[in-house]
Amino acid sequence: MAILDLVNAGEQPPASKRPAAGDEEDGSREYYCRRGVRHLSDTGITRLPGNYVLPASDRAADEYSPSLIKLPVVDLALLRRGPEQRAAVLRTLDAACREYGFFQVVNHGVDRADVAAMLDVARRFFALPQREREAYMSPDVRAPVRYGTSFNQVNDAVLCWRDFLKLACNLPLVDCVDSWPSSPPDLRAVASGYAAASQRVFMEVMEAALEALGVAGGEVMGDLRKGTQMMTVNCYPECPQPELTLGMPPHSDYGFLTLVLQDDVAGLQVMHDGDWLTVDPLPGSFVVNVGDHLEILSNGRYRSVLHRVRVNSKRLRVSVASFHSVAADRVVSPAPELIDDEHPRRYMDTDLATFLAYLTSAAGNHKSFLQSRRLY
Ligand SMILES: O=C(O)CCC(=O)C(=O)O
């Protein structure tokens, strides 16, 4: 038994909820990967199984009494209201991307009812019987639909307290939607409407970010218009010992920007000046963060920042993260406008296909992929 398994070893689902004889071995890592944490939480366990217990050095240090930060707010309505207001918003956006790598977007034009419907259908999907959810499980990181658990369950040394549904949203969207879950019956309509809205907001914010960086956006925006979008619907159920584990480990995101829709339960934490700060969920807003591809394109001016998710014992949390980038084989490089004697090129070229290949052999947490692309 591994050392980690000795901590809290022995906590298993009550007999009534255990798999029938001949099913996976009860309490094995494989069992937990197959069943996920929603199922485990529903069994009413009171102690965390050893597979989820992080070494003390990787746990969140403090008691869970998060001090909430308000991220810089980017108001998209002001972006459209004449050159002066646009310039002021661009300054806010630029400062947020350099200092935090994170900001919140308001007045984004996505209907509140559509946002609420997305969170609602997400909750209903994770409340479906386990067998229905399991049908979408796949170990293939390139699958157009993938239900699973943990962060990168094949390579995670310790499992994370998260279940997810990943939906590829590449264009034309109709080609992807048919492979998405058919239950709940409104999932395809609600999630495809939300995905299209999220792509619109992404394009508007990305155009502003390129303008703020002083980069000619034509080619990049053209590539993004034909690019990739992956939507991850996250479920972090109530956890019996949240201080021993995490919903997601510290990681950065691969793409240009990620748009995160969170419900009203706090959990997302951002690394800033060496401290973990909890993002205050601002109702109706999207949290937006810079991904590795934008850090590379900006030659390091914008920061793809580590973030992680804490869980709690009282309320299930749902979030929807939408990752946007160029097509998988399209090369991402530092913009020539941002390279000079004072700012030599800091990153090698990369592409999404290389990142996906990397994920099959590494956990992909921390900023390990981005570090592998750094020249100095
Ligand atoms: O659940 C969240 O708030 C953040 C999710 C996230 O970081 C991710 O999906 O990469």
UniProtKB/TrEMBL annotation:
Keywords: Cytoplasm, Dioxygenase, Iron, Metal-binding, Nucleus, Oxidoreductase. Residues 226-326 form the Fe2OG dioxygenase domain. It comes from the Eukaryota. GO terms for cellular component: cytoplasm; nucleus. It is found in: Cytoplasm; Nucleus. InterPro entries: DIOX_N, IPNS-like_FE2OG_OXY, IPNS-like_sf, Oxoglu/Fe-dep_dioxygenase_dom, Plant_2OG-oxidoreductases. Its cofactor is L-ascorbate. GO terms for molecular function: dioxygenase activity; metal ion binding. Residues 7-28 are annotated as: Disordered. Involved in the regulation of shoot development and salicylic acid (SA) homeostasis. PANTHER family: OXOGLUTARATE/IRON-DEPENDENT DIOXYGENASE. Belongs to the iron/ascorbate-dependent oxidoreductase family. This is Fe2OG dioxygenase domain-containing protein. It comes from Leersia perrieri. The lineage of its organism: Eukaryota, Viridiplantae, Streptophyta, Embryophyta, Tracheophyta.
